[in-house]
């Protein structure tokens, strides 16, 4: 479907990744969103711990620097710009990584102004082990998404890819403690997530544009009658 520049769906994919597994899913979500006609901003949340803490984990600093060269940090302006906001996180003890949570917590100003109300929201994540908390991590992010006023877009079993991988709550991958990349089936689910969230965001945006135009039409009607 052709869209004017003004009407083109805009998707922000804000993720954290330390060893590249969540990054790979983020790129597949982006691919799906672009295939559905969306303009995409891929952003990596930055570290929140001091360099001496990063130095304790082998390769952390080097990998962070490499990824930071590829992706800008997500900003408040990115969230305001987007019609769809998709969060991606590796599991941290069954919940969201503090680096991504710090970005989300920084959206309080937009929340206070109601600026994120009605945008589409979705989430994907990775764990080290198959039952290490993928689903609990994804669902834990539904809480802040609800507070922000996002219209949460789950995956259900709305695509054949869902019968092979992923979760109904969002795309997932298991890295088996060695940064094993997502499987082709994991990536297919992530691409589906990108397409689906772009589709929902476009529908929500079209409804808002129609509503606004209708409001303007009503106003003009009232003015001409008065
Ligand atoms: C502090 C910390 C806590 C973690 N907690 C869990 C966990 O609860 N369950 C799990 O399966 N993996 C856990 N992991 C592993 C990562 O979530 C997993 O390796 C992830 O796939 C890495 O993604 P990335 O390559 O995008 O950084 C933890 C890792 C760290 C550093």
Protein architecture, described:
With 226 residues, this protein is of the alpha/beta class. It has one domain (10-225): Rossmann fold (3-Layer(aba) Sandwich), CATH 3.40.50.360. Helices cover 47% and strands 14% of the residues. It contains eight helices and six strands. α1 packs across α8 (184-225). The longest helix is centred in the last third of the chain and has 42 residues, at 184-225. The radius of gyration is 19 Å and the shape is globular. It starts with 9 loop residues before the first strand and ends with a helix. The model has no long low-confidence stretch (mean pLDDT 94). Bound molecules: flavin mononucleotide (FMN). Residues 17-23, 90-94, 126-129, 132-133, 175, 179 line the site of flavin mononucleotide (FMN). Keywords: Flavoprotein, FMN. Pfam families: FMN_red (PF03358).
Task: Give the secondary structure arrangement, pairings included.
Blueprint: E1 10-15, H1 21-35, E2 39-44, H2 51-54, H3 60-70, H4 76-81, E3 84-90, H5 98-105, H6 108-112, E4 120-127, H7 134-148, E5 151-152, E6 172-174, H8 184-225
Parallel strand pairs: 1-2, 1-3, 3-4, 4-5, 4-6
Helix pairs in contact: 1-8
Bound molecules: flavin mononucleotide.
Q: Please tell me what the overall shape is.
A: globular
Q: What's the assembly state of these chains? A: single chain
CA-CA gap between termini: 40 Å
| Ions and ligands | flavin mononucleotide
Query: What is the level-2 CATH architecture name?
Result: 3-Layer(aba) Sandwich
Give the SSE string: EHEHHHEHHEHEEH
Average pLDDT rating: 94
What is the fold named in CATH at topology level? Rossmann fold
Number of helices: 8
Strand content: 5-15%
Rg over CA atoms: 19 Å
What is the top-level CATH class?
Alpha Beta
How many β-strand runs? 6
Family: Belongs to the WrbA family.
Protein name: NAD(P)H:quinone oxidoreductase
InterPro entries: Flavodoxin/NO_synth, Flavoprotein-like_sf, Flavoprotein_WrbA-like, FMN_Rdtase-like_dom
Keywords: Flavoprotein, FMN
């Amino acid at each position: 479907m052709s869209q004017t520049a003004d009407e083109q769906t805009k998707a922000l994919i804000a993720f954290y990744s330390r060893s590249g597994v969540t990054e790979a899913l983020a790129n597949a979500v982006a691919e799906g969103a672009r295939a559905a006609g969306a303009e995409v901003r891929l952003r990596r949340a930055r570290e929140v711990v001091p360099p001496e803490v990063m130095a304790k984990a082998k390769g952390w600093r080097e990998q962070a620097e490499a990824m930071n060269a590829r992706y800008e940090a997500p900003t408040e302006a990115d969230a305001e710009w987007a019609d769809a906001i998709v969060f991606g996180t590796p599991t941290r003890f069954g919940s969201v990584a503090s680096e991504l949570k710090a970005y989300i917590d920084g959206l309080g100003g937009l929340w206070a102004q109601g600026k994120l109300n009605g945008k589409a929201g979705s989430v994907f994540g990775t764990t080290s082990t198959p039952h290490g908390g993928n689903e609990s991590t994804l669902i834990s992010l539904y809480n802040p998404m609800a507070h922000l006023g996002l219209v949460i877009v789950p995956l259900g079993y709305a695509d054949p890819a869902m019968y092979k991988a992923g979760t109904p709550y969002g795309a997932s991958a298991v890295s088996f403690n060695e940064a094993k990349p997502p499987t082709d089936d994991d990536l297919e689910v992530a691409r589906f997530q990108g397409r689906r969230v772009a589709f929902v965001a476009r529908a929500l945006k079209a409804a808002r544009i129609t509503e606004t135009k209708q409001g303007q039409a009503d106003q003009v009607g009232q003015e001409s009658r008065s």
